[in-house]
User: Fold these one by one.
Assistant:
Number 1:
Amino acid sequence: MTSSQSFEEDLAFSKALHKHEAESGGLLAKITSKDKEAFSNVVNNYMRYWVDKDPMSETEEEKEARRSNYTNMTNSYYNIATDFYEYGWGESFHFCRFYPGETFYQAIARHEHYLAMQLNIKPGMKVLDVGCGVGGPAREICQFTGAHITGLNNNDYQIYRAMKSAVKVGLENKTNFIKGDFMEMPFEDNTFDAVYAIEATCHAPKLEGVYGEVFRVLKPGGTFAFYEWCVTDKFDPTNIDHRRIVRGIEYADGIPELFKTSVALQALKNVGFEVISADDLALNDDRTSWYYPLEGNMGKAQCIWDFFTVFRMTHFGKFCTRALVGGLEKVGFAPTGSLQTQRVLETAGDCLVEGGRLGLFTPMYLMVASDIAHRTLVIALAGIAVYSFVGAGVMINRRLDKSKEMYIRQELQKISQDTSQNSESILTDDNV
Ligand SMILES: CC(C)=CCC[C@@H](C)[C@H]1CC[C@H]2C3=C(CC[C@]12C)[C@@]1(C)CC[C@H](O)C[C@@H]1CC3
């Protein structure tokens, strides 16, 4: 697969690789139905972006190859990882905060609702989901708010899965899923009332590229709210361990380069957004950390289904998945590279946990922004309105004062005329 494939070629390749129509069932059914040669080519293609194993000696050339081929690299990543993600995590590919008594899927949905609340989404609004995955959050936010959600994604397989699930739950008229690059969005300027992104824009080679496109497609006055994957200020690039962990996250999650929170915030401002709030939701005193399922921490599971989710990340759970996937690969039912994919994802889990524990990394740097030009205009107009209102009030008051004064004068004049007439008549009476 090359980075210059047309949309038609991409779709044809995806159909051949995943056998779209045939694909159904769990992970094992899905991986055994892939085109074996195509799948192992994609695995090899992804691996060629990560040749240098030592993060300290990684060359600028290698990093540049990832940045300039980000669509090809990310597409390859999701072509091999999507089925594993759904098997291990469900249909919403993101993290969240966890509270005692709240199940895994409730917590995932709450994280989506929280974002919808930041955007003040109302029924009938047109909302964009940047990097929508297989559409889990888009469906949830559509049902939660009554808005119309457009999901943008560059991976045909994920779009296919998102569309299929939308039809299954009867949301095909309230959602649509569009193939496209978020660095060159296939939408007119000022199309959406609100835009959100959940742990997706970190696949961009340069944050200004994707944030700038959001700014362009957002209607004046619209809001952009998103959870960004970032390294924190604790990350020290001269520390070998930090570099190993962060590079592990990049490698095992299909990310060209992770940026610091301050870089993301500045990128947002650089493209013209006014930042309403910026908050690292991972920095809190929650009793349960965002990465607990990846630790395989069964003690934190809240219901029977949570046990299954967390079990997959225990040592024994990983051993079982490896044995099944590896076994099927050995006997030729699953494509070569399936086991390697599982191993890559295990690295993802381990490095995310390490990064989370040390506070080097956050998957939930929540930024909310609005466009400054429009806000300035609104504030200026409001100022003019208040000024004119107050001015008009003062003028009316003055006029009222004047007319009151005139009235009083007239009344006084009348009184003085009456009194002089009266005194004249008294005088005449006296004379009598
Ligand atoms: C890559 C980005 C930007 C977001 C995805 C976040 C998460 C949904 C994934 C990050 C690491 C993934 C792993 C799995 C599921 C999806 C993630 C949590 C597995 C649990 C899938 C099943 C495998 O056997 C183990 C995986 C570990 C990593």
Number 2:
Amino acid sequence: MSYLNLQQVALGYGNARTAVEGLDLAVERGELISLLGPSGCGKTTTMRAIAGLIDLRAGRITLDGRDISRLPPNKRDIGLVFQSYALFPHLNVFDNVAFGLRLRKVPAAELRQCVEKVIAAVGLAGFEARLPAQMSGGQQQRVALARAIVIEPKLLLLDEPLSNLDAKLRVQMRAELRRIQRELGITMLYVTHDQDEALAMSDRIVVMNSGKIEQLDTPEQLFNAPRTRFVANFMGFENLFDYRDGQLHGAAGQLPLAGLPAGTACAGWRVQQVQVGSGPYAGRVLSRGFLGEHVEYLLQTALGEVRGMAPAALASAREGDTVHFDLPAHEALALAA
Ligand SMILES: Nc1ncnc2c1ncn2[C@@H]1O[C@H](COP(=O)(O)OP(=O)(O)OP(=O)(O)O)[C@@H](O)[C@H]1O
């Protein structure tokens, strides 16, 4: 049995239809697993259920060999870090972090040692006497993290913890979080709708769609070998077409393509795999976007819209021009039915 197990979990709110259905998930000790998916797919609901903030409609959850399905939140040994830092504004960094240990009546000397160790681990040594209002967003989020990990929870749940931070700080903080997670060996479930964040941080990623798991895999596998059309689209294969009888089928019509593996039902290409400027097909430029070394094109073609790229030096075509392009069969992501 794995460290954290969700077995056939169903979740919902009030009389509304089920928000999450038949969810099976097994997480190993020390793993960082991301829940990734579009808004409303059930990520937060799943986290709430693990934390004990909503009841299960069906199924069970075990953590470290114990059935926690019916335990109240404070008996589950689970730490939470959310988007809003929810620090106590009148307490300084030391006291914010020490809060949970004081509730547990940890003796003063041991408390000081634990708090200082965790404050150092999140890179805030020297900030102990600061109030939250005297710190940046990134620093406050580190305090929230320190406060959650100081009580050594069996599992740490993080729900979009970096989404209030600016882009640069977010990239920096995700590396920090990963380092802290590895150093302290904490098992983490991490909710995000940002695939770059999930790919950069996770041991494995759960891609969710409409309350169900579409694919659970390593970042490399998800990126290179998505198994469903939904995951492929989410992983940047923006050109996705049905395939049968030697023809690609798009919203507007068909184009012939040879060389795809037998049994292919859907073929996909990333924008950078679709070469604009030469190739057997033709399309009309709907728009172009300059990206420095490359120009990205949106083309109207016999299939419908196709997105492709050309090196900037060769990208002379403008809106309204007709250009050639290629959908190379040997580079296609080929999905079976
Ligand atoms: N408090 C609530 N009451 C009723 N329905 C809710 C409630 N919270 C969420 N839902 C519904 O449950 C479904 C799953 O929502 P959830 O918040 O888990 O999605 P999410 O993947 O976390 O989305 P986001 O990225 O926007 O936070 C949605 O259909 C949503 O409308």
Number 3:
Amino acid sequence: MSDVTVRSLATLVGTPVDKLLEQLAEAGMSFSGPDQVVTPTEKIKLLGFLRRAHGRSEAAAADAAPRQITLKRRKMEELTVPAGKGKATVNVEVRQKRTYVKRAEIESPQDDEREEAQRKLAESQARNEAENAALEGADQKRRDELARQRAEEEAAAERARQEVEEAARRAAEETAVASEERPRRAHDADEGRAPVVRREPAPAPRSDKAARPARPARGGGRDNAGGRTGRGELHLSDAGSARRGAKKRPTRREAGRGATGSHSFSRPNAPVVREVAIGDSIVVADLANKLALKGGEVVKALFKMGVMATINQSIDHDTAALVVEELGHTAVRATDTDAESTLIALTGEIQGEVEPRPPVVTIMGHVDHGKTSLLDYLRRTKVAKGEAGGITQHIGAYHVETPKGVISFLDTPGHAAFSAMRARGAKLTDVIVLVVAADDGVKPQTVEAIQHARASNVPLVVAINKIDKSDANPDRVRQELIQHEVLAEEFGGDVQMVPISAKQGTGIDELLDAILLQAEVLELTAVRDARAAGVVIESSLDKGRGPMATVLVQRGTLKKGDYLVCGTQYGRVRALFDESGQQVQEATPSIPVVVLGLSGVPDAGDDFVVVEDERLAKDVAQQREAKRRETRLVKQAGNRMEDVLAQMGQTDGQPQQLNLVIKADVQGSVEALRQSLTALSNDLITINVITSGVGGITESDANSAATAKATIIGFNVRADASARKVIEANGLDLRYFSIIYDVIDQVKQVASGLLGKEVREEIIGVAEVREVFRSSKFGAVAGSIVVEGVVKRHKPIRVLRDNTVVFEGELESLRRFKETVDEVRAGTECGIAVRQYNDVQPGDQIECFERIEVARTL
Ligand SMILES: Nc1nc2c(ncn2[C@@H]2O[C@H](COP(=O)(O)OP(=O)(O)OP(=O)(O)O)[C@@H](O)[C@H]2O)c(=O)[nH]1
């Protein structure tokens, strides 16, 4: 494209050059002469000037500019083109082509200008929109505020009116919904406005949309509500209809929220009220678990109620129920353990054909009147001999077979065993054989036996023993018995009296006949073909066989392979042995049998019952064990010396009582302890010695302690087995000492409220000395069997003889089959050598203990 000069431009537009130069000058462009080149921009500028001069807009001129330039620049040219065989010359009008590259170059400054202008325009628009939105938001807020105030006024008026109209409850609900929605609507409106402000260049429609959620609060809301009135009315009560028009009804969405979502939105969650099942007692940690609380919180709550308990302590039902209520939950009494009730349901009703069963007999009588001799005679002569390798030990019961029938004897002569059985409600015995020595007559224990028989409604058969003796006088016995209302048949009574000699065997068959006759009168029967149930007579831990229990089957048939629950133990019958040590496959009613296969050693007097599956057996046993443990813990609580102190100050200024039972090895110690301990009484605590004496701790000592909730102090003496049972059953606090100063110090510290560390002795095992060997290295070595716990090497020990400490020292050597071992567990034999002590004797007990430091707690 050729350059356009002022002259050529003047020619093109038909304007004299001078005029054009003038016009260019007027348009702000000075040209030195007519031959100066005019750029397209300058031409556009000139055109704009000329247009303005003619009253036309610059924009229109700008729009037209490219067209004008293109269209007006044309020229006629001649072109030679092929035509047939020759060539032809044609005239063509050539429009001068605008080079768009060039045009872009021209336009680029103009584009920049336009973009700048557009940017400013957009900014201005955005500012306007933001301002509008802000204004709209402010307006909206104002409108919402007004709407809220109006709604409040309306609601207040509504409430007042509805109170008058006695539609209080429904009105209150609606008002609550309305008042809950208001803050939410305001919140919605705020949220709607906020994004507009933040998104500055947001387009206008969006700001409208954002503002929309607030609309229902204005007149539009009423329109909406009006549109939905038909649907809404279906759910309106009369009271609701009466209010129509007076108040904006919530939109469907709002109503939905009001009905369901309002709680989670405007109110805190309602506290969860848990229903907690509590049995007779519960451990604090378990209770916390049930309440979904931390143990510490429950301990704290208990503390506030004045109950001091640690997390592992058991609290009784009433205390637990109180703390549960205190914590805002509900306590219910736990129905008896599930597994136990399942067991009762399963075993409660034994159906089947009843058949006669042998009688179970207990032999009673005064000391030395011949009970053991009678049992021995029967065993020797009437019980089949055991095979080698069978169980040869005493099993507590046996049965004898006579031509006229079978009789089972409980081989536990003595009143204690009988009363223990009776105390457990176990009616084991069908007949009591009362042995009275013909040379000695009726004695106190004879009378006691009569009373037992009467109390438990068990018939008597009297065996008048020792008739072989020259001074025997059976008639005197009969006479004396009349005084106790035991009338012989010979005298018209109903009691059979058989003269016997246990030593010579005289009259034994007659005695057995008499027992069977008595049994016939009793018409003893039991179901035979059923799952077995019965009672444990005796139990022990055999080192080879594990726990062994002699049980008496009372109904059903106990078979090898049966699953059974036995007190707190369970298991599967691995083997059954009869009293002669022979394996048997089953045991029928009234037959005693030794059971192997239990998980542990049950207590004498425990019931056993056969169940179908092991799972149930295990569950029941475990639940019973847990219950027993809890009961023991509850009993223990409050019995310890420290607990007595903890209760101090809770008895309205009355001094607290600390009761003690003191037993010591010698009278001197008893007196010393009694005097020094009672002297420790002060204003806060009175120390009473309930019982004291020389010798081991007996059952009667333990019973006294249980009655008085006393702490038992054993000074160089120990509790015997029956005392330990009472102590354990009652959770009594039993403490052994060997230094008088320690006793006084401990009681003094407790009494004066001193806390701190306390060194306690814990007996970890007891071994019984069977034989004593001599060793060149160790001197006397006690061949012993560990009967309880575990005996450990290098631990302190005490040697006890008749439950009295005879030596205290250290266990020097502990061996099993010539091998030195570190410890020996219960039921295992071992050799024990005690450092610097060679006087050990068979029958002694070696008690192994540990000294542990425990923190005193209140
Ligand atoms: N002559 C004679 N002596 C007998 C007879 N029965 C028992 N004895 C003796 O009486 C003493 C006591 O007999 P036990 O069988 O131990 O009496 P117990 O009633 O079992 O005595 P405790 O177990 O202490 O209650 C023993 O010395 C027996 O030998 C008998 O029929 N005739």
Number 4:
Amino acid sequence: MALSMLLPRIARATTRANVAPAFRCAAGPLSFARRWASSSSSSSAQPTAEDISRLKHLRNIGISAHIDSGKTTVTERILYYTGRIKEIHEVRGKDNVGATMDWMDLEREKGITIQSAATYAQWGDTNLNIIDTPGHVDFTIEVERALRVLDGAVLVLCSVSGVQSQTITVDRQMRRYNVPRISFINKMDRAGANPTRIIEQIRTKLKLPAAALQVPIGAEDAFEGVVDLLTQKAVYYKGARGEDIVYADVPSHLVDTVQAARDELVATLAEVDDEIGELFIEEKTPTEDQLRDAIRRATIARKFTPVLMGSAIKDKGIQTLLDAVIRYLPDSTEVKNTMLDLDNNEQVVDVVPYSNQPFVGLAFKLEEGKYGQLTYIRVYQGRLEKGQFAYHVKTGKKVKISRLVRMHSNSMEDVDSVGAGEICALFGIDCASGDTFTDGTINCSMSTMFVPESVISLSLTPKDKNSPNFSKALNRFQREDPTFRVHVDSESKQTIISGMGELHLDIYVERMRREYNVDCVTGKPQVAFRETATKRSEFTYTHKKQSGGAGQFARVIGYIEPIDPEQQAELPHEFVNNVVGGNIPTNYIPACEKGYMDGLQDGFMVGHPIVGVRMVLQDGAAHSVDSSELAFRLAAFHAFRESFKASNPRVLEPLMTVEVSAPLEFQGNVLGSLNKRKGLIIDTETQEDYCVVSAEVPLNNMFGYSTELRSATQGKGEFSMEYKRHSPVLPNVQEDLIKEYQKKLAEKK
Ligand SMILES: Nc1nc2c(ncn2[C@@H]2O[C@H](COP(=O)(O)OP(=O)(O)OP(=O)(O)O)[C@@H](O)[C@H]2O)c(=O)[nH]1
């Protein structure tokens, strides 16, 4: 392979390493050694009383859930009750204009949330920054980004389906970013609504101590309101849109149920909160205030999730949910955030969450809207003011903040300044999502966001090959979305786009057509296979060229070995330099590492990237005149390729967790359809007259499943799918894939 073909790939690999540290070198620039430090690089000035009060009345919250649980419907109600919108638009329906938060045309057509939209609202004397996050697994990066910058979240669950596969994913993401959560059981009007079962699922499936703060009055069609267990009052949502809250005595038939639920709440809190625990042992009844304080403490400490309930579509339960958000979710001073001090060996230092500190903000989302390029920023400390300069930490460039806005879905309000803890948006800033900005007085970087592996790819060819918009659009999409990747296949010279699922890629192809006027022909979707080694393999490789001009000489000695599968999510590749005694001069070691990275780009079996292989360099030889960086890079590249061939390599494929729900009568058909696709059934659960089947199925076998499921269940079945891990393909499948790849190569010759 020519070196000119390798170079762009190295640039890509390095960029990826910046996003999600993947490469580790025993010593050198790619080492990510970090130390915790109690010190802070910020000034120790006391925050003003005004700032403290502002922050006490500010909440940054996200609304997350499994697809279709009703997040957008809930958010729409929040905007309505907080006075941000004058009318409620439903998410679905032929003649609707679309919910306010689902503003992209495509979202409206497909009825799903694709991009999260930020908006802010006021409830009582508290400001809320709300991010509506997509539930579809293909847009998981949006959920990750939202959680990274939020201080608390509302986990919406369906009263019938409860904890679903995507709920578990979202919960895992919330744990990763230490986000406290309130649970909201929505759709209490649905037939089969059962909050007790859902709370039990939160406890068992999410392993999260949970208890209801309310009991429902009526169920399904007759759902009227709730009884608040703390005030022991019935709450009804009256008026045309549930805007009139009416308090009343607990209906007599619910008195015993309310007492039992309150006892359960106290008992659950006693397990996670010392103060309630002591009262419990002393058999004392906690007061309403003691309970509220304990719920807040335990929620913020992420030891407990309070559970509320309602029906967004019937305009019930939203105002009480908002009260709970303010009461139990933390303000930004109650959340610990850290950053890396770049002047001090990447020491981890605490963010000081007040406005009188040097400014530090994180660009967490880019968006090309109708108003131009927008960059969403979470201000972690300090203040961002219109007219001031901000420093882009990665490039060291100074940018002028010419316009500062607060977003309200797709409209905006201009503001002059925003303080610590706020979320705002800037215009015309050149950066990628995940980049840090400061005021230039400190050199810190917020740690990066987790970026998942892509699982599917397809070739993309513009109908008009000369359109400059093709690469412009691809560049922009990549900057907006780190899970959307683009490369040119070295064999076919085709542009290949990769992402998190068919829908994810479809959306970009469609956006290319609508926003950039570029029609494309797409190839058949291909799953993102990987290749890996299964045993250690030694190498001694000499690169030598003597024909005319300057000679080339480099020798590398060492071995490659599989990385422990448990470690691979964090460490997909590793280069270790164990050369002692200077047989390879240290200035050639980075070139050896580059050669290794070149070698990882495509395996020889099916032409997909190689993962999970460590290269250990032990010895070698150099020549005082003929050795060069290029010679060592090529030596390491060929050494890696040769030893990989001898390492009993295997082809890996993405394995998905698939969850199918359908009426019970179709259970047999659902199981049959999954078996046919070589699915491993993990769990089968029956809920009322519904069944939920979970299975692990290779992504390669899932093409066309929605059509099959539709006909197998008379259109009544639904499924969701989430990436689990890459796992070895069956030997016969591997043989077929290799043959197919060889055929493709032969055709090209
Ligand atoms: N019965 C009932 N249906 C509801 C309720 N809330 C929402 N829905 C319906 O559930 C469907 C999904 O609602 P959305 O608000 O789009 O859900 P979402 O979680 O935002 O969906 P994604 O953005 O695609 O993940 C729509 O058809 C809503 O009308 C509710 O309280 N009861």
